Amino acid sequence: MYQKILLATDGSVPSEAAVDAATQLAAEQGAALLILHVVDIYGYYLAGGGVLDLLRAQGQEILGKAAARAEALGVSFTSRLLETGVGGHRVAALISQEGRSWGADLIVLGTHGRRGVDHLFFGSVAEGVARLAEASVLLARSKAPR
Fold first, then answer.
1. Which domain holds residue 27?
2. Domains held by the chain: number
3. Are 110 and 15 a contacting pair, CB within 8 Å?
4. pLDDT digit string, tens, across residues 12-63
5. pTM for this entry
């Protein structure tokens, strides 16, 4: 059913559920997997290179953990680290754009399931991807308490 699955991960608990779902689905269906992490440098750009280097290193670590899961299941994958940049590209837009460019037929990511005031202030990358993506979107939620 799915041939190209894009997994967007940020290392959060809900994102771990997305890693499990995407890698399992890719293994079951023999799909190629693109593991993606977006470093959102928007609020950190003025902080300088040290902070940005730390964010990039954390991103590589997050990608490495997801890659290990894919390898354990024998899934064919590639991984990519993207940055939002100063020009205003937001995380959801970059994930959706990458899905389009790569030809993903499914995008998998975690959701915190925020509601009310939290949702108003923090928004939702998952909601943005669901709105912007041309591919189907699978939102994975952790069973851990929010």
1. 10-140
2. 1
3. yes
4. 999 999 999 999 999 999 999 999 999 988 766 666 678 888 999 999 999 9
5. 0.88
